[in-house]
Amino acid sequence: MRRFKSTLVQRNHFKHPEDDESTTSSDADSTDSGSDAGTTFRCGQDVDSRSLFDVWSASRPKQGGPEQAKFFLPPGSRRRLTPKNIALASRIVCSTSYELLRLLSGLNPIRTAIMIFLTIIRGLLPAFRGYSQALILDEVQKLISSGDFPSTRLGHLLAREGFRMFAESIFDAFANDNESKVHASVRFLMEHRQLEQRLRLDIPTLADPAIRDLLHESDLFVRSFNGLGFGFGLFSPFDLIRVLSSLAEVASQLYVLYSTTQGSLPFLTSSPSSPTTKDEPNARLQAPLLAILILPTLFSLIGSLLPSFSLSLSSPYALSSESGYYSPSHAHVSERAERMRSLAHGEPFRAEVALFGLGPWILDSWASARKRILGLEEADASPLSGILRSETGVGSLIMALRWLLTQSNASEMIVLLQNLPFLLYASSTSLGSLALYRASLQSVVFTMRSLVASFERAFQSVFFMGAFFAAMMVEPKLSPAPEEKMDYQSYEGGMKIEARNISYTYPGNSKRTLNDVSFVVEAGEMLAIVGYNGSGKSTLANVLLRIFDYDTSSSPSDSEPELLINGLPIRQLDPSEYHSHVTALFQVFSKLNATVRENVGIGNVGDGFSDKAVEEAARRAGAVKLVRGLPRGLDTRLECMGLGMGMTSGMGEPLERPGDEGYENGMASDVRQGLSGGEWQRVAISRALMRARTADLLLLDEPTSHLDAHAQHNVLKSIDHIRRDPVTGKRTKTVIIITHQLSIARKADKIAMLENGSITEFGTHDELLARPNSRYGAMYRATAC
Ligand SMILES: Nc1ncnc2c1ncn2[C@@H]1O[C@H](COP(=O)(O)OP(=O)(O)OP(=O)(O)O)[C@@H](O)[C@H]1O
Question: Which residue ranges does the record annotate as region Disordered (predicted)?
């Protein structure tokens, strides 16, 4: 499989085929006949993520409401069993099955092969079990009628049955152990792949709604491997292997059924007491009688197909009654329930939940969404009301029909009919034959019904599998194509930044947040970016840090936008290489519910969280006294909310570090400490300064907003110290500082005044003050008063 070329990704965001105006409904329909929206591929051919993505997208066309209110089938939605979707599913299977096999067998091919073999054997065992028990029953029947006790043959049969049970339990133990090992390793591999890809993808890629939906369905595929998948309606390729066992079971039981009626099974062919000689039954009866065997399965197959029709006949907003898969509105409602749940659980929201009295609102919103999902919303209404309502009447009737069909197997008449082949054809009426016949019959019926259900689940999961493989091939939008990539070039004295006509529009917004921004910062200079709230300062910082990509489309000035770092276009630099030469403090920084060492050390994990590196960073940020005052120094666990749990970063377990003193006997220490806003800011500055030695650019967004005057002075002194060579005193780093404190800005070499996303004034403090009607001057005088 080929990965999506990043050039393509940069210029063409992932688009749903229907987003493209050139894609008409007939294009979408053409997927039925083999040519996919935009791309064609054949089974077994090397496939790229674009075509796989297009096939996956085509399975979730827009629907619901009038044209403008239409929405894409939400992620996790149930795909209808239509000819178009069947064609799409078969394409996904064709293009991904080889990769899937490689993935599943990759970790331990021998164990996987053994697992497949044992699964098939497992399907054959019930037939042997039934046969062995039937022999015992026959022998008992013979003994009762003859009174010929004791029987050595019965002793042999019982001993054989005991041995069979023993062997089967050993077989089961071995097969289960092997299977759980294969499961665990594949689960690990899938989760690892998923996590690896998540971490590779950058913010612009993750902000793409199509990619978000793709990752959501990919996540469902990965979750199907967790062993609980089946219960949630998810079907993993492992469940598909179990289908092999079911097929083997059906085949072996059908053979037993046939042999029982033909009397061809050894030792069961004749009844010892009263063998009955049957006339040769009418040959024309054979076919209909055998059809009776599969009648319930046919009914159940038809029944299981009905909900998809009922959904299309009733309201498009109706929730699916099927477990696990969402109808379109189901997914929306489920998202609302999930949002309310995280509001209730999330510690960061706790203060506002309490202050604004949000408890009842959260609970009511969650309850109404959850009731819809669970189908409890009309619990108070009469059971007939749904059927009588005109818009859902047809759907309800079809649901009733479905129930009748799927329950047909329990019908006594069908059970009686199923006995006819035995009564008409069997050459023996022995108890063992009858018991074997009944057991095999039931096994065939139930296994075939479960195969039908498996087919439906497998059909849905094929789309999740397509999403997984398409998601694994998505390239981060910010990564340059290999042929365009350039190596970062160091400049003496820091980093030179040249921005020409840079604009930025947030995804989904029509208005630009940055407009035609142009400026130059020479290596070693300090630039202060100032401006009113919402003027775009933090957005500009994210563009300069290559967290966001500037707009490619022509800027308002119609000049080609360009952002050069040390003379090289930023788009041609590998983001991770570029990031290794910069360090930053974000305006909203992460507060980890972890030790001080971890909170600071993540600024440069390469330093291994060592005392020396962390203490040095804390010293530069003026946080040494703070750390020394904590109960366990660097190993004090910090508390974000003062509630003893939760963390604002969304990170789970604390970082592990061998010999971490914050842990006792593998358990997190109970000594926890809350910090004030200013103290947290010093921790965050320490984190940013962990990389200060190697970085060419220091970008600090509001670094002193929470600091007292003394701390502000120290931090600024420290920054000035860091940016100079300790021996020569020459500048070695460029500094960009975003601040509302103009007393700080005036110390910078250059000041950029940002208003409504545009730089309106640029120069030194004195130059700007000297300008007539200077906006910066007005702001400075206002704050100085
Ligand atoms: N995630 C986002 N999605 C869409 N629009 C956004 C997003 N973040 C910011 N904006 C828009 O960009 C504008 C500029 O935001 P930005 O954070 O860059 O301002 P700022 O100058 O740093 O403000 P402040 O001084 O308050 O920190 C905002 O007014 C908002 O309209």
Answer: 1-43
